[in-house]
Design brief:
There is one protein chain. The protein is an alpha+beta fold. The protein has two domains: about 10-185, 2-Layer Sandwich (Chloramphenicol Acetyltransferase); about 195-440, 2-Layer Sandwich (Chloramphenicol Acetyltransferase), CATH 3.30.559.30. Helix content is about 30%, strand content about 25%. The N and C termini lie far apart (about 50 Å). InterPro entries: CAT-like_dom_sf (IPR023213), Condensation_dom (IPR001242). This is Condensation domain-containing protein.
Length: about 450
Amino acid sequence: MTEQQSPALSTARVFAANASQRRLVIHPRRPAADGMFNVLTRLRLTGPLDTDRLERALRRLADRHAVLRSTFALHGDQAVQIVHAEPHPDLFRMTDRHSLPAGTAGESPVDALAVRLQNTPLSLDHGPVFQCTLVRVTEDEHELFLVVDHIVIDERSVGILMKDVRAYYADPGVELDPAPQLHEVPPRDEVSAEDLDYWTGRLTPLSPRPLPDVSLQQDPDAFTAGVVHFALPADATAALDRTAAAHRATPFAVMLAVYYAVLWDWTGTADTTMFVPTDTRSEEEHFDAVGFFQTATFMRYEVRPEESFATLLDGVKRMAAAAHARRHVPMLQILDALGLDYGDLRHPVYQTGFTYAAGDIDNGWQLDGIRVENVLSYPVVAQIELLFEVMRSHDRYRCEVVHALGAVGPQAAEEFARRYQSVLAAATEDPARTVSALTGRVGETLAS
């Protein structure tokens, strides 16, 4: 970081970044990957909003959570978090719908703004890494966009921020209990040779790639994102929960086992490695800390078509538990041991991923009399070729197939979503059926 890039360090404190943050500091932020690391929350606010009160509540978030007023840099090979005394002056912006540039055909100006905010990277060097934009649509309707770089936030953190802003808006004078701070989290335990050997043993040799080889260098638009969204009906959700309970598994394990089965059916490849984002919060006092506590846990399983779904589920459950127990091993250290480059997306460990969130922001919650609705916003850039996302909300699961258009076309993604729902329904109806019977056949591969 140059002197020009750094705010006055006399009013800042410098800490070593944690292992999860370090990989995002050193990751090459390619021009084709603009917005890849942006986490966008879009909220529709209906009612007589006090905009000054909202701005104060948002600024108090940055006062409360130091990571929201931080910048990041590399000093030599050391990644650091620089905590500034004051929130960034550009943290909050307000505009009117009629002042926004027009969108493309069929796109509203507010929707066009959402795309621009999602697609415009934040600066780790300069900040802000947390930026809020409020749009006045009508006298009693506003849209609030919270854009946060992934280096300072994970899925759990979003819920913490929403809880805090609700408290600050309801009572501008409230003093909340001190929040745990990301930079105060003690370093992880030393990685043992046994733990590292587990990962190198699991991933050597690498599993084959079932998906087409996509290179950002060859095609800068290859990672333009497509998204297929669907929700499981309440009865399908209930059947999934019953299956999990009957087999002493989590819903996560059931849905992951179905994902492996569908990938086999869809591509014809049985041995698949995927990465699963995993929360590394290990102490109860850190559970309410805002920050990036995630790592990528590699999960590898070889589907045997003649095994029952119950056997597949048991194998996936045991594999996932063993991987989760070693989640403290930094991803970069595993990749170094394998001789892999973190930024090279052509390796099999990056081909596909699976994410599961136990709960999301509820629609219809109140901000001191203001109705708040969470508006879905889809990514502009896909981080990997194929990502299956699951979010539990009340009595159903919300699912998204996020895919890089250079690897998986829209029709193929739609077909994948249909197959997933079909296999899940069959598996929960009769877990004793074999994987081949559940899928019916080896489907058309992506290459065909």
